[in-house]
TrEMBL record:
Superkingdom, natural source: Bacteria
Residues making up the signal peptide according to the UniProt record: none
InterPro entries from the UniProt entry: KR_dom, NAD(P)-bd_dom_sf, Sc_DH/Rdtase_CS, SDR_fam
GO molecular function: oxidoreductase activity
Protein name: SDR family oxidoreductase
PANTHER family linked: DEHYDROGENASE/REDUCTASE SDR FAMILY MEMBER 11 (PTHR43115), DEHYDROGENASE_REDUCTASE SDR FAMILY MEMBER 11 (PTHR43115:SF4)
Family: Belongs to the short-chain dehydrogenases/reductases (SDR) family.
Ketoreductase domain boundaries: 6-186
Enzyme Commission number: 1.-.-.-
Keyword field: Oxidoreductase
Amino acid sequence: MSLKDRTIIITGASSGIGEATAKKLASDGANVVLMARREDKLNTIKDAIEKDGGKALVASGDVTKKKDFENVVSKTVEAFGKVDGLINNAGLMPLSYVQKLKTDEWDKMVDVNIKGVLNGVAAVLPKMIDNKGGDIINISSMAANRYFPGGAVYCATKSAVKMFSEGLRQELAPKYGINVTSIEPGAVATELTDTITDEDIKENMKDMKSMTTLEAEDIANAIHYALSQPARVNINDVYIVPSEQQ
Ligand code: NDP
């Protein structure tokens, strides 16, 4: 099914997977709403989408702030009249070994990776229930399925996102026609590792540099696949990893 005229909010749209997804969905006719904190980046992406004939709205905000999400939903309805989909993509991954006690980074991961997703769902759900349908796509991770070094907290946040997605699906899909998908990527070439401050982790990650990772566009394609199914089809999980990743 084409995404023509479907209105979809994308969090973390200023780079990486969110940016690639916004461009992909807009190229298939969706009205995309770009949410993140770096407004200048969002404006550049909006311009690129419009240059290619797509429709985009910049609605900057911080996913940890409920009020920001409420504003994004209001602006979306004002511009496009409805909300058909939400892609909870914003996230960060400051990996560290637990004994380093980087508790501020743990808090940030919980706030953005978990609470940010909950805030997004709370903001769009009343509209989707009124519309009797919609799509919620949560970007979890391969990290929901297995631990990797320095990822105790990050993996825990992504496991939470995966299980929350399943709970949402069971509560919302049969009753309200709101389909829910958890996307679980392995390594993707983005800015995500920039938030790592633990020098031991940075050192260990050098080994991964030789691996051919996924591109953000590969995840955008998976998201497009889940969104373009007929309403009767719920894609529960997409677990997508680089061929070279063990
Ligand atoms: P990027 O660092 O490129 O993108 C992260 C995005 O999140 C940015 O657009 C950033 O925008 C946004 N963001 C961060 N904090 C907030 C906040 N408080 N409020 C709003 N937006 C915020 O990395 P990716 O594209 O890789 O990451 C996207 C998602 O994919 C994340 O959830 C990540 O965990 C997940 N993922 C990534 C993998 C990878 O290997 N890259 C693998 C598996 C999952 P801004 O700074 O402008 O606010």
